[in-house]
Write a structure and sequence with these properties.
- The protein is of the alpha/beta class and 555 residues long.
- Among the domains are: 1-129 and 451-467 and 480-520, P-loop containing nucleotide triphosphate hydrolases (Rossmann fold, 3-Layer(aba) Sandwich); 187-337, no CATH class.
- The protein is 55% helix and 18% strand.
- It contains 19 helices and 15 strands.
- The protein has helices spanning 35-45, 76-81, 114-124, 139-150, 153-185, 187-199, 206-218, 220-235, 241-253, 263-289, 294-314, 319-337, 339-383, 425-428, 431-449, 465-479, 492-495, 522-534, 540-551; strands at residues 2-10, 13-19, 23-28, 61-68, 91-98, 103-107, 110-111, 125-128, 392-403, 406-415, 423-424, 453-457, 484-488, 500-509, 512-519.
- Strand 14 and strand 15 (512-519) form a beta hairpin.
- Helix 6 (187-199) crosses helix 12 and helix 15 packs parallel to helix 16.
- The longest helix is centred in the middle third of the chain and has 45 residues, at 339-383.
């Protein structure tokens, strides 16, 4: 829960440094005194977008810092997940805005992203402002309320896994049908292309081998002449190089006994003779292998021309790409051939996925149905004491096509009077009625979610007198169950029931208008509530009335 708030150079606030307490607290102040500014500052700590115009005029930077006690809320997993130091008794959220437009966020003095701050902030504080009453018009909000009451997070997650699998198969089937339809429209053309590529008898590396063979065939006469000349020079009877080397080697070998100095040269010469003899034999063999073959030359030229033509036609540069294109065409043609079987298999898979999804949706619907009855019963019990003795409330569940959240369409129906037909709550309820409905919903939800801090921003709109006092009692009860509830109010009946009372004030100073907030002591509370009762002219009767209201805190 929120234990301390520090604000520096934020709009009309020069510096605010104040402690907060567990339980039920109230904040009062005249319209325009700066209550919304304080809420705006807290909103920045919850990840809302920053505006450099919010910096106090003439200052370069503003700072908003809040301290929270998380000891009883089991949030260690969040800090482990985001690799942030965990300080349960003093968790610090800080936001700094620069006049340049830059913004920095910190959690426990570690730099944090706004997404991280928002994710943590949503688990720390719920700010209920007047515009949130409009949530009653949204089906998603009503469904979320019912899911919280049903405590069906595990079942919902299981259903959503099944739904994603169902939609994945559905997309797969749709894609296959589109591919088949497209393929059938081009089947004749694809068949022609495939046969053209298939008849080319393409092989990987074929182009390089043919181009090399073409070079050999095109220069066959030059190659054979060169090989023949080399063969003659090496092997020509007694004048060949090989024979001359042999005679030279033998001549030296005869004197090695009497002239040992020549032994090494003789051995080297023998090695050269052996190597050259081997080379001569290889050249002689290749001379026999090389022949000018005009027919083969034509075949190679024709095959290369075909490859070059196909590459140009299909806008590719390698045989490998032509082979890939051929294989792709074959797969598409096979898809057409086997399309009925493939579609049938996927349709079976889709039907199974849908049955699985519907079974899980049915379990979810059952849990929501039970939660809807519980919600209707408890809402009636909560709303009757709030001045609606004839209230009727119902969570109607209608079937809809399977969606991300199930197959249930949720609509809250409401009637405050016996004679009025039940209609969707957002269409029939007055402002004061909606305020009471939302407070009752929040009280129910808070008991399940166990949110540390709830701030009500003028939820008392449209109510007064005893009803306001009963609304305050609900907030007081919420604050007594290990939770912190803060209500910004204009009603003395609500202000009087707060365990702690803060006042927001606006003052004119030589440097401009400034807003501040202070915690009131008991006598200051009497004066504040008396002023709320009677206006600026505070009478003794108003003070006595204020003391009487304050005394009801213990009742």
């Amino acid at each position: 829960m929120l234990t301390h708030l520090y604000i520096k150079n934020f709009t009309l606030i020069d510096e605010l440094d104040i402690d907060f307490h567990p339980g039920f607290s109230v904040i009062t102040g005249e319209t325009g005194a700066g209550k919304s500014i304080i809420l705006g500052a807290i909103g920045l700590l919850l990840g809302q977008r920053a505006d450099s115009k919010a910096i106090k005029k003439g200052e370069k930077k503003c700072v908003i810092e809040a301290h929270f006690d998380l000891s009883n809320y089991g949030m260690e997993a969040f800090f482990d997940e985001h690799d942030i130091e965990y300080e349960p008794q003093d968790c610090i959220l800080r936001r700094e805005l620069m006049a340049s437009g830059k913004s920095r966020a910190f959690i426990n003095d570690s730099p944090a992203s706004l997404q991280q701050m928002k994710a943590l902030g949503e688990r720390l504080i719920d700010i209920h402002s007047q515009h949130q009453n409009l949530l009653l018009q949204q089906e998603d909000f009503q469904l979320n309320v019912l899911d919280i009451i049903a405590d069906d997070a595990t079942q919902l997650h299981d259903y959503q896994d099944g739904y994603r699998q169902f939609k994945a198969v559905e997309r797969q089937l749709q894609k296959l049908k589109e591919q088949i339809e497209e393929a059938k429209a081009n089947q004749d053309f694809m068949q022609f292309q495939y046969h053209e590529l298939e008849e080319a008898k393409l092989e990987d590396g074929q182009q390089e081998n043919l181009e090399q063979e073409l070079q050999k065939l095109s220069h066959a006469e030059d190659i054979k002449t060169a090989l023949y000349n080399a063969d003659n020079l090496l092997n020509e009877d007694e004048n060949g190089i090989v024979e001359k080397l042999k005679r030279a080697s033998d001549s030296l070998h005869d004197i090695t006994e009497v002239y040992p100095e020549i032994k090494e040269a003789t051995q080297r010469l023998e090695s050269v003779h052996i190597e050259l003899k081997d080379i001569a034999q290889d050249i002689a063999a290749q001379t026999e292998d090389v022949d000018f073959d005009p027919q083969r030359l034509d075949e190679v030229n024709n095959q290369l021309d075909k490859i070059y033509s196909l590459q140009q036609k299909f806008h590719v540069s390698t045989v490998r790409e032509l082979i890939e294109l051929r294989d792709d065409l074959k797969n598409k043609l096979n898809t057409i051939t086997n399309s009925d079987e493939e579609v049938a298999l996927l349709q079976q898979k889709l039907a199974q996925a849908q049955r699985n999804c519907e079974a899980k949706a049915a379990k979810l619907s059952d849990m929501r149905g039970k939660a809807g009855k519980l919600l209707a019963s408890e809402m009636k019990q909560r709303l009757i004491p709030l001045g609606m003795p004839n209230v009727r409330f119902e969570a109607r569940i209608e079937a809809k096509p399977l969606s991300e959240n199930g197959r249930d369409k949720i609509q809250f129906y409401f009637s405050a009077n016996k004679s009025t037909e039940m209609q969707p709550v957002a269409q029939i309820a007055s402002g004061g009625e909606i305020a009471r409905v939302m407070l009752s919903l929040k009280a129910m939800i808070s008991g399940v979610v166990k949110l540390p801090t709830i701030i009500f921003d003028e939820i008392d709109t449209g109510v007064s007198g005893k009803i306001a006092q009963k609304m305050a009692i609900i907030m007081q009860e919420m604050g007594s169950k290990g939770r912190q509830v803060i209500s910004i109010t204009h009603l003395p009946q609500i202000a009087a029931l707060g365990q702690y009372h803060y006042k927001v004030e606006k003052h004119e100073t030589p440097t401009g208008t400034q807003s501040n907030m202070r915690e009131l002591n008991e006598e200051q509370r009497v004066d504040e509530i008396a002023q709320m009762l009677s206006g600026d002219n505070v009478t003794d009767a108003a003070r006595n009335n204020a003391r009487e209201l304050l005394s009801s805190r213990g009742e």
